[in-house]
Specification:
single chain, alpha/beta, Rossmann fold, 2 domains, 10 helices, 6 strands
């Protein structure tokens, strides 16, 4: 299984064959992902030889439908062959324990361990029922427990309830990318047009209609990528 994209049980999992052409994200986001996640696997030997210290964790946060899951698939396809991409759901971690999960990741190193919905395992102090899982996670993030060449990728739709101890200092999950449809600088007019182009591939518009024109119509609406995908889908049905 080494060098493949798998789930924590070693199964191939549902990783579609996506690449950077299938997603609209700010260039800065792509650079952060490449430098802190993908390069740590692809260029591990060169990075070690240069004695460069990279981030050991990245959090993708924001509303549903903004491309976080799609981005994880692209990362999986970028690192496989160079290292192993391992996906673990919160229910898997609760069932197996952090020690087992990190042992699998270490055996498959260099690896990227993707934990979706991290708030379920690292909730704020308002929900202390799984605090033992948080304590164990911090041990691995801080190096109290050896984790080897394992880079952590996490995601959440509700960052406000994630325990800040997980992301409050270097060495833990110390990089954050926020996917916010209200952020007009990163997810404004240009981003909307890119999403429209992706979801309208293979289809023609009326002569008076362009993706630029459509993006201006929805410019001030807090649309997620899923909203725009549904917009195109509805237009297809109307055309039929």
């Amino acid at each position: 299984m080494r060098g493949k994209a798998i789930d924590i049980y070693g199964r191939k999992g549902s990783f579609e064959d996506h690449d950077w052409n299938d997603i609209a994200i700010p260039e800065y986001f792509k650079k952060e992902v490449e430098e802190n996640i993908i390069w740590s696997v692809k260029y591990r030997d060169k990075i070690k030889a240069a004695k460069i210290s990279l981030s050991r964790g990245l959090l993708l946060e924001g509303e549903r439908g903004m491309g976080k899951t799609l981005l994880s698939m692209i990362i999986a396809n970028e690192v496989k062959g160079y290292g192993t991409f391992i996906k673990a759901r919160p229910t898997d971690v609760i069932k197996l324990g952090w020690s087992y999960v990190f042992e699998v990741a270490k055996n498959m190193q260099p690896s990227v361990l993707y934990i979706e919905d991290i708030e379920s395992l690292a909730p704020s102090e308002k929900t202390p029922t799984v605090s033992a899982f948080l304590s164990d996670l911090l041990d691995f993030l801080d190096g109290t427990e050896e984790r080897g060449d394992v880079t952590i990728l996490t995601s959440t739709n509700v960052p406000e309830i994630v325990d800040m101890r997980v992301i409050d200092r270097p060495g833990r999950i110390d990089r954050r990318l926020k996917f916010d449809p209200e952020d007009k600088e990163n997810f404004g007019l240009e981003w909307k047009e890119q999403v429209l182009k992706i979801h309208s591939r293979g289809h023609k518009f009326e002569e008076s209609l362009t993706t630029k024109h459509l993006s201006k119509i929805i410019e001030n609406l807090p649309y997620t990528g899923s909203h725009i995908k549904e917009l195109i889908h509805t237009a297809k049905l109307e055309a039929l």
